[in-house]
Amino acid sequence: MSKATMPTLDNSKPVGDMNVLEMETNQSNTMSSRESEFNDDEPWNATKFSWKRKILIIVAGFTCTFNGNLGSSMPSGALDSISETFMVTERLSLTLLNSLYMVGYVLGPLIFGPLSEYIGRRFVLIGTFIGYLTFMLLCSAAPSYPALLSFRLLCGISAAAPTTVISGLYADILDNPSQRGTAMAVYMSVTTVGPVIGPLVSGFASQISWRWPFWVAGIVAASGLPLVLTLPETYAPVLKNRHIKRLSEKGDERGATTTDQLHVFSVQKIFLRPFTLMLTEPILLFTALYLALAYALMYLMFQAYPIVFQGFYGLSPGMAGVAYAPMIVGIITALAAFHAYSTFYDKAAKAGKGWAQRELYRRLPMACLASPCMVISLFWLGWTTQENISPVVPSIAGLFFAFGFQLLFMAMTNYLTDVFRQISASAQAASSMTRSIGAVLLPLATGPMYGQLGIHWAPSLLGFVALAMGAIPFVFIRYGEAMARRSKHARDIYA
């Protein structure tokens, strides 16, 4: 692996602006031999953690995001029960249960992504996980429908943190892009299962009471809390500052000679960074737009499936929830495909194959494969929903959708992390904000769209849009390197 593909803490663009980076570079050039020896130890470098500790961090990351994603779709199988309890008859009002949760995914990343690059990953993840658990339990005790909607919004804000922080967390501990890609792929497979099984669980649990789906989500989250509480800090600038201050407080002369190396955090620039990146980085902008479409389509499915399988086929909420099962198969298949391609790429790179020396080919070919799969699934769902065709057949569309959706996210989120590395939390925050806006707005149009266009043409229209957006990874393969070299933040990977 070339040095350019694995930028270190010193030659990347970490916290703050270029003045801070230049100041640190000038300081390092004037360091004494004792200071150099001190830095060679790098006790703040989380990539030197033991593998046992790294695996704990990776699994804790799974736990944080799985629970948040599970909660996102939990009301989908309980809409009838909630409607009867609170006497809510408007379909649009019921859609707000999921849409307001996704509004939290718009607001949360703007706070927690940059915050994790200011106070560190640990406190952000632990604090928001406890917040998610608290508000999920409050949902189960909501005395009115407005209160339930309020708790859903607060729950979504808390649940949004891991979606932006985990990529940075894994980049902190895994400097090998192959290992990091595998960790992200497994992470995304585990966490994507959450929103898929949410309607299945709630479809059956809601037959006891509308409160039970939220109780189940709370119990699942509570079981993972002890693991999340063991998360150590991993963010190098925060760890370095703590280490230097600790030595200084103890009177250690190494701390005294390195106090001027403390990282200077520009709060304003940190919290504006997601917006700055989105406006100045075409790679991030177009990746975010494509992921926004895919993410919105996923959450549209949670509104469309009840229309198809309960409204058209007349299935019970529990049996309609079973229609999501093929999606789980698609997720598992996508993970296997990702692993197979990654192994193939690594072998080709090790053998010196010319094509494998281009970092673009590490992730983007999988995104290219994802595009037609999503298009096929939308047309499949639309045109196999017929009175004389078993509901099993249109449910299989979920396999193709989940396979394409999962491959796309595995490829493109890893691509963003590879490109932006230490500031990837801010890049992911911008991307998460964009796709969450789509997940809020598009599902709200599900009822009117199906009402106006019908069950055949509504998903077909979305299929045409997905076909057009699917050109983005192909464009990146052709022009991505040139775009990255002109970038202020992304050029390290292609230097």
TrEMBL record:
Keyword Membrane assigned to the entry: answer is yes
- Chain segments annotated as transmembrane: 55-72, 92-112, 124-145, 151-173, 185-206, 212-232, 283-302, 322-344, 364-383, 395-416, 461-479
**InterPro entries given for it?**
MFS, MFS_dom, MFS_trans_sf
Give UniProt keywords alphabetically: Cell membrane, Membrane, Transmembrane, Transmembrane helix
The UniProt entry, under Pfam families, shows: MFS_1
Question: Record's Gene Ontology CC terms?
Answer: plasma membrane
User: Where is the major localization of this protein?
Assistant: membrane
Q: Which residues form the Major facilitator superfamily (MFS) profile domain?
A: 53-483
Q: Please give one Gene Ontology molecular function term for this protein.
A: transmembrane transporter activity
Q: How does it sit in the membrane?
A: Multi-pass membrane protein
Give the UniProt family note: Belongs to the major facilitator superfamily.
According to UniProt, the name of this protein is Major facilitator superfamily domain-containing protein
State the organism of origin. Answer: Stachybotrys elegans
Taxonomic lineage of this organism? Answer: Eukaryota, Fungi, Dikarya, Ascomycota, Pezizomycotina
